[in-house]
Amino acid sequence: MTSLVRREQPAPAVARLVLNRPERRNAQNPQMLYDLDAAFGDCARDDSIKVIVLSGAGPDFSSGHDVDERESTIPADPVATFGAGLGAPGVEGRHAFECEAYRGLCRRWRDLPKPTIGQAHGRSIAGGLMLLWPMDLIIASETATFADPVVAFGLNGVEYFSHVWEVGHRKAKEMLFTGAPLTAGEALALGMVNHVVADDDLDEFTVDLARRIAAMPAYGLRLAKASVNASLDAQGYESAVSAGFVQHMLGHASNLAQYGDIINPDGADLIRQLARREQYP
């Protein structure tokens, strides 16, 4: 099976992982997530790599989860580190799947022992944020947008619920309540991204930043990253993200009870209406 993540080396000591499903706007199915996890693991074990960049092929970074492939299965039967009950019917099986394939992978990526940089262009929608937010730094192109419209599906937000930490509590509520996208400039002002650069300069700027980071001692980088992450956790970050995930699963349970599906079936139409109203690209 062909991997849905392509690995490149744009500079010495720098690996770039490219989400490679452009025909689906890099919508995530279980294979893509586990291909990405495998690629992150390979880079983490490769002593020649000091910095990892995550980007996407095609016009968008990621349009989120592929709602046409939302089965509660994971490929190749890996050990379920974070989820128990995989394959069980109803909410139990879905909870196990999302603990492992969403919540679990994001936690692992956040704590990779090497610096990571998210390179965002085009749209990053819902599950696309789930890939960006665990990264240490985020660089955005001028025309990039960021949105989490999944309240329309009867859910609280994307599974990796770090919205408040990324944009502040009032903007997080507006973002979730309306489904409206943040512009790159807004994301920069809120501290969600580190830099905004011209679309044509995104690759070069990101690789140059990665090259500068790679010049630092690897162990010093690892210690600095662990220290910042520990500081966030001491402020309640991990507890807050976990609490948001519980609410997400409650939304799935409610939808299953009402509609027999994990998402509100009218959600896609509502999101399209919101997109037209907001002139969403």
Automatic annotation (TrEMBL):
SUPFAM superfamilies per the UniProt record, alphabetical: ClpP/crotonase
Residues of the signal peptide: none
Native organism taxonomy: Bacteria, Bacillati, Actinomycetota, Actinomycetes, Mycobacteriales
CDD domains from the UniProt entry: crotonase-like
NCBIfam families in UniProt: PRK08290.1
The family this protein is said to belong to: Belongs to the enoyl-CoA hydratase/isomerase family.
One Gene Ontology term of the molecular function aspect: catalytic activity
PANTHER family, sorted: ENOYL-COA HYDRATASE (PTHR43802), IP11341P-RELATED (PTHR43802:SF1)
Name under which the protein is recorded: Enoyl-CoA hydratase
